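User: Please predict the structure of the protein below. I'd like the answer in structure-token form so I can feed it into my own downstream comparison script.

Assistant: Understood. Taking the following sequence of 107 residues as input:
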Amino acid sequence: MMSERRMSFGSLLKRPSAFLPLLMSAAAFLLIIAVLATVGVTHRQDEGAPARIFQLLILLQLPIVGFFALKWWPRSPRPATFVLFLQVGVVLLSVATVVLLESHPAL
């Protein structure tokens, strides 16, 4: 059995605290795509349920990512750093998409 002291990148990605934020970010991004495909870009006062779901998916990742960082970064700093960068990158992709859509009224 592999020691928990030294984990590889692939082994860390199998941990729920590593892959759940990735899945949540992917779900948030797919939600954006689904709304764009069905409704298109609309600028309304009330953001509606999809916006609330997106916000929850992004916000609820914070404690999971924090737990991952506190638990795995001291034990396996290099692979944990790569996982953290991956988690942050996928969140930034989703958030940047929303910011881009909101800032360009012509889209």
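That's the full token string. The longest helix spans residues 77-103.
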